[in-house]
C-alpha cells in the first residue's frame, strides 16, 4: 500500500501534471483549491466593496447625487448577495480546504475531484450575479433577501440571481459533503473526535448546517422562479398563496446561514488566541457543546427577522425567548476566549490583533443582537440602520476580521515566508478605526429613525451619514494594503520555519512551510 | 511593539478622539429614540435604556477582564503562561448567570409586548393601504367613518435632485396627512395593493408590515397634539425612500371640524364618470394626476429614466391606439415597474391623465379621452 502510494505521488508530481492555467483548472489538490477559493473570495470582496462604496457615496448627503433609486436598489442587492455568498462563505471554505487535511494529518480532501468541481461552480455564479447588471432592467433590486412579491416585478436580472443561488448552493453542498467525509474518515490514528482541533469541529458542524439549509434556500428561489414564469402562486394571495411564506422559508435558511458564517470564524479565533496567549484553550469541551447548541438553536429562531410581519403574539413571545437563549452559548464562547488569555503570556502580532478586534467588536454585535431580540424594541429598530450596523459588526468585524486573523496566522505556513509585521499591524489599525467610523454611527441613525435600503434621507440624518461614508471609503482603501502585504509575502520575505509562532500547536506546524504537495503522505501518529 | 507601530497607533487614536470630539461638539447628532407620544413608546424607550445599562455593566466587566489581561499578562513584561484549563464551577457559573439576567430582561419585555398587541375596543378604526409609492387611508369605523384619501410625497422633485434648496421636512412631508384625535385608541389595519410595505411612525412606536392580500392590525393612542413623521420601512421598489407618513394628532374639537371639511371636499370632488368633459378640463386635471402618480418614474419632462423607465414623450403606446394605453394604465405591465392604476384612480382621473399624456410635451394627438371610454374598458 505504501509503495503504491509513493508511486502515484511520483507520477503526479513529475509526470502528467499540467502546468500554467490548466494546472489550476484541473487541480485536485486541496491546497491549490484552497488558494483559489481564497483568491476568488478576495476578488468578490473587492467587487462587493466597490458596490458598498457606490451606496455610501450616494448617502454622503441628502438628495440624489450619483445614482437613481432603481440602480441604488440593485447595488444593495448585489452587495449583499456577493458579500455573503461570494466573499465570506468561500473565504472560510478556502480555509477549510487548506487547513483541515493539515490539521487532521490527511494527504488531501476525501473527494478530490468533487472538490475541484465545487470550486469551479463559483466563477459562473459570480459572473451571473455581476453580469445581471448588464441585462435589460438591470440586476435584481429586491435586497439580498429577495422578498416576494417585489421579486415578481423584477426583470431577467432576478432569474440570473436565482440561478446563481442554485449554483452556489450546489457548490456549498458538495463542499460540505467533502468536509464531513474528510473529517470523519481521514483523521490520523489516535485523533479521536474529542481531540479534533476546534477549527475542524466548527467546520464539521457548519457543514451539517449547510446541508440542512441550502436546499431550503434553493426551494424558496425555485418557488419564486415558478411564480414568475410558470403560473404558480406560492407567494401571491390572489392565487391562494402568501407573500410571508417566502420570508419564513428564506429565514429558515437565513438564520442558520448567520452561523454558517460565524462558526468557522469562531474556529479560527479558537486557534489564534491560544497560540498568542501561549496557553491551551480554556474549555475545549464546553466550546464544542456551545458550538453544537448554537447550531441547534439557529434552526428555531428564524422569525425574529419578521417580528412586524403580523404574526400572533404567542409567536412573537416564543421567538423572543428562543433568540435570547442563543446569548448563553455565545457568552460561553466569549468567556472561554477571555479565560484563555487570562494569565497567559500574551504577544500581539497581527493575527492576535485581529482576533482581539474580533472579540471586542463581535461582542458589541452580540449585544445589539440582544437588543434586537426584544420584540417590542425591535418594532422600533426593524428595517432601520440599527440592523445594518448590527449585522456589519457581526459579519465584518466578526467574520471578516477572523478571516484576516486566519490569513495572517497561516500565511507563513502557506507561503513559507513571513509577512511584513509592521504593515500587517498598520492594516489592522486602519481597518479597526475606519470600520468603527463607518458602522458605529449607523446605530444612532437607526435609533433616531432612519430606515435601511433608502437612497435618500431626511436632513436630520445627514451628519452621521457623512461620517459613515468617510469611514467606509477609508475601510475600503485599507484593504488594498492587505492585498499588498499578502502579495509581498508570496513573493518573498524572511523564511518561515515549520512553526513560526512560538505558542502554536497542532499537526499543521509539524510540516514544512510551505507543506509538501500531498501534505501527510504517511499518517502521523498521535500519542 | 516596534517604535514605528507605536507612532502609528498614537496617530490613529488621536484621529478617532478628534472625530468623536467634533462630533459631540455639534448638537445635530441624535443618539437616542425620538421622544415618544404614546405610552407604549415610553415603555419601549425605558426598556431600551434599562437594557443599555445592563449591557454596559456586562461590557465593562467582561472587557475590563480582557484589557487587564492584555495589560498585565503580556510576554513583553515577562509574564509566564499558566497552563490551567477547564474548571467546572466557573463554566457552570458563566452559563447560569447570563440565563438569570436574560429572564430578568424578558419579564418587562413580555408585559409591554402583550400590551402592545391588545387591539381590542378601539375608538376609531382606520385602514392604511400601501401602494407603490404612497399610502391610502380609509376611516372604517368611529368618528369620521367614510373618509378616504391618499397621501403622496409633497417634497418637490427639484429638492430631491438638488436644483432647489431642501425644506425643513424634506422627504417627511405629504400632501394629505392622516389626522387623528388625541387620547383616542386608534386601531390601524394595514394591507397593500402591490408589494409588501410597512407603516412606521417612530414617535408613535408603531411599525406594522402591510402585506398584499392580508390584513394585519396594530394600535396607538397619541397623548400630545402635534405632527408625527415616519416612513415606509419595507423595501418596496424604486421609490421606497419616498413614501412618507405624516400623522397629525389634534384635539377632539379640531378633529370634528376636520371631518366636516373632509366630507364637504369629498362631496365636491366626487367625479361624475358619465359627464362629457372638455379637452381643457381633462388636461388640467390630468396634469395634477400626472404630478401625483406618474412623475416619480416618467419624470416631469415625460422622458422617463433611460434604461429603467420608458419615456412617454414620443412613446409608441401613448401615440398609438388609445385602447392599448388605457389597458396599460388600468392593468399595469406585469414584470415591470408599471403599476396597475385601475384600482387606485377613478375613471375621470384615468381619462384625464391619458388625455394629458397624449397632448403634453411633443405629443400632439389632439384627442380627448372621456371617462365613459375608461368605464367601458374596465
Write up this protein:
The complex is a heterodimer of chains A (527) and B (378). Chain A is mostly helical and 527 residues long. Chain A has helices at 2-14, 21-26, 30-58, 69-104, 112-120, 122-131, 156-185, 198-229, 243-277, 284-297, 313-325, 327-341, 350-373, 375-381, 385-415, 421-448, 462-491. Mean pLDDT of chain A is 94; it is low at 1-12. In chain B, helix 2 (39-72) packs antiparallel against helix 3 (88-116), helix 6 (279-293) crosses helix 10 and helix 10 crosses helix 11. In chain B, a hairpin with a 2-residue loop joins strand 1 (124-131) and strand 2 (134-141). Chain B is elongated and about 90 Å long. Chain B is an alpha+beta fold and 378 residues long. The model of chain B has no long low-confidence stretch (mean pLDDT 88). The longest helix of chain B is centred in the first third of the chain and has 34 residues, at 39-72. In chain B, the strands form two sheets. A five-stranded mixed sheet of chain B has the order 3-2-1-5-8, with no helix packed on it. In chain B, strands 4-10-9-6-7 form a five-stranded mixed sheet. Chain B has eleven helices and ten strands. Chain B starts with a helix and ends with a helix.
How do you describe this structure in short?
By secondary structure, chain A is an all-alpha fold. Helices cover 69% and strands 0% of the residues of chain A. The relative contact order of chain B is 0.09.
Which characteristics define this entry?
A: 527 residues, mainly alpha, 17 helices, globular, B: 378 residues, five-stranded mixed beta sheet, elongated
Topology:
The complex is a heterodimer of chains A (527) and B (378).
Chain A lengths: L1 H13 L6 H6 L3 H29 L10 H36 L7 H9 L1 H10 L24 H30 L12 H32 L13 H35 L6 H14 L15 H13 L1 H15 L8 H24 L1 H7 L3 H31 L5 H28 L13 H30 L36
Chain B lengths: L2 H23 L13 H34 L15 H29 L7 E8 L2 E8 L6 E4 L5 H4 L17 E4 L4 E7 L4 E5 L4 E5 L5 E5 L5 E7 L11 E7 L1 H18 L9 H15 L1 H4 L17 H4 L2 H10 L15 H13 L11 H7 L1
Parallel strand pairs in B: 1-5, 4-10
Antiparallel strand pairs in B: 1-2, 2-3, 5-8, 6-7, 6-9, 9-10
Amino acid at each position: 500500500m505504501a509503495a503504491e502510494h509513493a508511486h502515484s505521488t511520483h507520477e503526479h508530481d513529475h509526470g502528467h501534471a499540467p502546468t500554467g492555467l490548466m494546472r489550476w483548472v484541473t487541480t485536485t489538490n486541496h491546497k491549490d483549491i484552497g488558494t483559489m477559493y481564497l483568491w476568488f473570495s478576495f476578488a468578490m470582496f473587492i467587487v462587493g466593496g466597490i458596490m458598498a462604496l457606490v451606496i455610501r457615496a450616494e448617502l454622503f448627503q441628502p438628495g440624489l447625487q450619483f445614482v437613481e433609486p432603481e440602480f441604488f436598489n440593485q447595488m444593495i442587492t448585489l452587495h449583499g448577495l456577493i458579500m455573503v455568498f461570494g466573499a465570506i462563505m468561500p473565504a472560510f471554505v478556502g480555509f477549510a480546504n487548506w487547513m483541515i487535511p493539515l490539521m487532521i494529518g490527511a494527504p488531501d480532501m476525501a473527494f478530490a475531484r468533487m472538490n475541484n468541481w465545487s470550486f469551479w461552480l463559483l466563477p459562473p455564479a459570480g459572473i451571473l450575479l455581476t453580469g445581471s447588471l448588464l441585462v435589460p432592467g438591470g440586476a435584481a433590486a429586491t435586497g439580498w433577501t429577495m422578498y416576494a412579491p417585489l421579486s415578481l416585478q423584477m426583470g431577467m436580472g432576478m432569474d440570473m440571481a436565482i440561478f446563481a443561488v442554485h449554483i452556489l448552493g450546489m457548490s456549498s453542498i458538495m463542499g460540505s459533503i467533502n468536509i464531513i467525509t474528510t473529517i470523519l474518515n481521514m483523521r490520523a490514528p489516535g485523533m479521536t473526535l474529542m481531540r479534533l482541533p476546534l477549527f475542524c469541529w466548527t467546520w464539521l458542524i457548519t457543514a451539517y448546517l449547510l446541508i440542512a439549509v441550502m436546499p431550503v434556500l434553493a426551494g424558496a428561489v425555485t418557488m419564486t422562479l415558478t411564480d414568475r414564469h410558470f403560473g404558480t402562486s406560492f407567494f401571491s394571495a390572489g392565487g391562494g398563496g402568501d407573500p410571508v411564506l417566502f420570508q419564513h422559508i428564506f429565514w429558515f435558511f437565513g438564520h442558520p446561514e448567520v452561523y454558517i458564517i460565524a462558526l468557522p470564524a469562531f474556529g479560527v479565533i479558537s486557534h489564534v488566541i491560544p497560540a498568542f496567549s501561549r496557553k491551551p484553550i480554556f474549555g475545549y469541551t464546553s466550546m464544542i457543546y456551545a458550538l453544537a447548541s448554537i447550531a441547534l438553536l439557529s434552526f428555531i429562531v428564524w422569525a425574529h427577522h419578521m417580528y412586524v410581519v403580523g404574526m400572533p403574539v404567542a409567536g412573537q413571545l416564543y421567538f423572543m425567548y428562543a433568540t435570547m437563549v442563543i446569548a448563553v452559548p455565545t457568552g460561553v464562547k466569549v468567556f472561554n476566549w477571555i479565560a484563555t488569555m487570562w494569565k497567559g503570556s500574551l504577544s500581539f502580532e497581527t493575527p492576535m490583533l485581529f482576533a482581539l478586534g474580533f472579540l471586542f467588536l463581535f461582542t458589541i454585535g452580540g449585544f445589539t443582537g440582544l437588543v434586537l431580540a426584544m420584540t417590542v424594541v425591535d418594532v422600533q429598530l426593524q428595517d432601520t440602520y440599527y440592523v445594518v450596523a448590527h449585522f456589519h459588526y457581526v459579519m465584518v468585524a466578526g467574520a471578516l476580521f477572523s478571516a484576516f486573523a486566519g490569513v495572517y496566522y497561516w500565511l507563513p505556513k502557506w507561503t513559507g515566508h513571513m509577512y511584513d509585521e509592521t504593515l500587517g499591524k498598520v492594516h489592522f489599525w486602519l481597518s479597526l478605526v475606519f470600520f468603527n467610523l463607518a458602522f458605529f454611527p449607523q446605530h444612532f441613525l437607526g435609533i433616531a429613525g432612519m430606515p435601511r435600503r433608502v437612497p435618500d434621507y431626511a436632513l436630520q440624518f445627514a451628519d452621521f451619514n457623512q461620517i459613515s461614508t468617510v469611514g467606509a471609503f477609508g475601510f475600503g482603501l485599507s484593504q488594498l494594503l492587505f492585498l499588498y502585504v499578502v502579495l509581498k509575502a508570496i513573493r518573498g520575505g524572511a523564511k518561515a520555519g515549520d512553526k513560526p509562532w512560538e505558542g502554536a500547536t497542532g499537526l499543521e506546524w509539524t510540516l514544512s512551510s510551505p507543506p509538501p504537495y500531498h501534505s501527510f503522505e504517511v499518517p502521523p501518529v498521535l500519542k | 511593539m516596534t517604535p514605528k507601530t507605536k507612532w502609528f497607533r498614537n496617530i490613529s487614536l488621536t484621529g478617532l478622539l478628534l472625530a468623536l470630539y467634533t462630533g459631540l461638539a455639534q448638537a445635530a447628532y441624535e443618539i437616542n429614540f425620538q421622544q415618544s407620544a404614546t405610552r407604549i413608546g415610553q415603555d419601549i424607550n425605558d426598556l431600551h435604556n434599562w437594557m443599555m445599562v445592563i449591557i454596559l455593566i456586562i461590557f465593562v466587566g467582561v472587557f475590563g477582564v480582557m484589557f487587564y489581561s492584555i495589560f498585565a499578562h503580556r510576554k513583553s513584561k515577562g509574564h509566564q503562561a499558566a497552563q490551567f484549563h477547564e474548571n467546572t464551577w466557573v463554566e457552570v457559573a458563566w452559563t447560569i448567570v447570563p440565563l438569570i439576567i436574560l429572564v430578568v430582561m424578558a419579564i418587562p419585555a413580555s408585559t409591554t409586548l402583550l400590551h402592545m398587541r391588545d387591539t381590542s375596543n378601539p375608538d376609531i378604526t382606520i385602514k392604511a393601504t400601501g401602494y407603490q409609492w404612497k399610502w391610502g387611508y380609509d376611516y372604517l369605523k368611529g368618528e369620521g367613518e367614510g373618509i378616504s384619501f391618499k397621501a403622496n410625497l409633497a417634497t418637490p422633485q427639484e429638492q430631491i435632485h438638488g436644483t432647489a434648496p431642501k425644506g425643513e421636512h424634506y422627504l417627511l412631508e405629504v400632501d394629505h396627512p392622516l389626522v387623528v384625535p388625541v387620547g383616542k385608541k386608534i386601531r390601524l389595519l394595514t394591507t397593500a395593493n402591490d408589494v409588501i410595505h410597512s407603516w412606521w411612525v417612530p414617535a408613535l412606536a408603531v411599525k406594522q408590515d402591510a402585506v398584499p392580500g392580508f390584513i394585519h392590525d396594530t394600535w396607538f393612542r397619541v397623548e400630545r397634539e402635534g405632527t408625527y413623521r415616519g416612513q415606509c420601512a419595507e423595501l418596496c421598489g424604486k421609490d421606497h425612500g419616498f413614501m412618507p407618513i405624516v400623522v397629525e394628532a389634534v384635539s377632539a374639537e379640531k378633529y370634528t371640524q376636520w371631518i366636516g371639511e373632509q366630507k364637504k371636499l369629498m362631496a365636491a370632488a366626487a367625479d361624475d364618470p358619465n359627464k362629457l368633459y372638455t379637452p381643457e378640463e381633462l388636461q388640467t386635471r390630468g396634469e395634477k394626476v400626472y404630478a401625483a402618480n406618474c412623475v416619480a418614474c416618467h419624470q416631469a419632462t415625460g422622458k422617463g429614466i433611460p434604461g429603467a423607465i420608458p419615456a412617454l414623450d414620443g412613446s409608441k403606446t401613448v401615440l398609438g391606439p388609445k385602447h392599448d394605453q388605457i389597458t396599460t394604465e388600468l392593468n399595469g405591465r406585469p414584470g415591470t415597474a408599471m403599476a396597475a392604476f385601475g384600482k387606485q384612480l377613478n375613471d375621470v382621473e384615468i381619462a384625464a391623465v391619458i388625455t394629458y399624456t397624449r397632448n403634453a410635451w411633443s405629443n400632439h394627438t389632439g384627442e380627448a379621452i372621456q371617462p365613459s371610454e375608461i368605464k367601458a374598458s374596465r
